[in-house]
Design a protein that fits this description.
six-stranded antiparallel beta sheet, alpha+beta, 24% strand, 434 Repressor (Amino-terminal Domain), 270 residues
C-alpha cells in the first residue's frame, strides 16, 4: 500500500490552529511578493498545488522539509517565514494588554519607542546551514539576527532582495559572493553586500562560529497585498556610490588643485 504523503492530506474546511493560519498567511505574502502563482510555487518547491493551497489557508501544517522547499523557492528562509507568522500574531493581538502578541521572549518597554529581547528570547529557527535568532519584533525597520553555525563546507547560494550586513562575533568564516569573490573574515570583521548578490559561507577551519546579520525588512502588506520593501537595487546602489565618488573626487581636486598636487593612496593626482 502506498504511504500517504503530507501533501496528499484530505482537504479541510477550517484552519488547524491560529499558528498554522498565521504561517500560511506569511507564506502567501512571501509568494505574492515574488509575483508567483500557486502553480508556479508548486513547481519550484516540488510540492502539490492542492497542498500549498491548504497550507496558505491554514488547513495544513508543513514539515520542516516542506517548509525548507517553500523557503528556497521563495528566496527566503524557514526562519523568515516563521518570524513572519509570529509578526502577524503580534499585529493581530497588539490591541490587547501590555506585551500581548509579541513573539516569545520579547518584552515590551514603551510600545511606541522600543522592544527588549532577552538573551533567551527571540524567534529561533533554521537559517542557511545553521540556526538563527531574531533580535527584534515586527516594528523594526531592519532585521538583526544572531546566527550560529559550524559547517565546514559551503551550502547552496542564497539570493534575496534585501541588502545585508554581517559581522563576525566569534570564529573565522569564508564568505563566497559568487562572481564577486571569496572573503575571509575573522572575529570583528564585517561585510556588506547589496540585494541580489548570491552569497553563502562556511567555517574557515570547521570550528563553530557566531555572526550578527542585519537585513532590510519587508513590510507585510495589508489585506493580502504583497509586502513592500525599502530597497536599493544593485544597479541603483552602484550608480549612487559611483556618482558620490565622482562628486567627491571632483570637489577635492577643485578645492586643492590651486595649492598643488593631491597625494592619495594610489599616487599623485595632478
Amino acid at each position: 500500500m502506498r504511504r500517504r504523503k503530507e501533501h496528499d492530506i484530505p482537504a479541510t474546511t477550517e484552519a488547524l490552529d491560529l499558528q498554522t493560519l498565521q504561517l500560511g498567511a506569511a507564506i502567501r505574502a512571501a509568494r505574492l511578493a515574488k509575483s508567483l502563482t500557486l502553480v508556479e510555487l508548486a513547481r519550484l518547491s516540488n510540492l502539490s498545488h492542492p497542498f500549498l493551497s491548504q497550507l496558505e489557508r491554514g488547513h495544513a501544517r508543513p514539515s520542516m522539509s516542506s517548509l525548507e522547499r517553500i523557503a528556497r523557492a521563495l528566496d527566503t528562509s524557514q526562519l523568515d517565514l516563521l518570524a513572519g507568522a509570529a509578526e502577524r500574531g503580534a499585529r493581530a493581538d497588539r490591541g490587547g494588554g501590555a506585551g500581548e502578541g509579541l513573539p516569545h521572549g520579547i518584552a515590551p518597554t514603551d510600545s511606541r519607542v522600543s522592544t527588549l529581547v532577552r538573551a533567551a528570547g527571540g524567534t529561533r529557527g533554521p537559517y542557511a546551514e545553521g540556526e538563527g535568532r531574531l533580535l527584534v519584533d515586527a516594528r523594526a525597520a531592519f532585521q538583526p539576527m544572531e546566527f550560529r553555525g559550524a559547517n565546514a563546507s559551503f551550502g547552496d547560494f542564497y539570493r534575496h532582495a534585501e541588502d545585508e550586513f554581517i559581522t563576525v562575533i566569534e570564529g573565522d568564516i569564508v564568505v563566497d559572493l559568487d562572481t564577486a569573490g571569496l572573503n575571509v573574515l575573522a572575529t570583528g570583521d564585517s561585510l556588506y553586500f547589496v540585494g541580489g548578490t548570491p552569497h553563502r559561507w562556511r567555517s574557515a577551519e570547521g570550528s563553530p562560529y557566531r555572526l550578527l546579520i542585519v537585513k532590510q525588512r519587508f513590510v507585510p502588506g495589508e489585506n493580502g497585498e504583497p509586502p513592500r520593501v525599502t530597497l536599493w537595487s544593485r544597479a541603483a546602489t552602484e550608480a549612487t556610490f559611483a556618482a558620490a565618488a565622482a562628486f567627491e573626487a571632483s570637489a577635492l581636486v577643485g578645492v586643492l588643485e590651486p595649492r598643488g598636487p593631491v597625494v592619495g593612496a594610489s599616487g599623485i593626482v595632478k
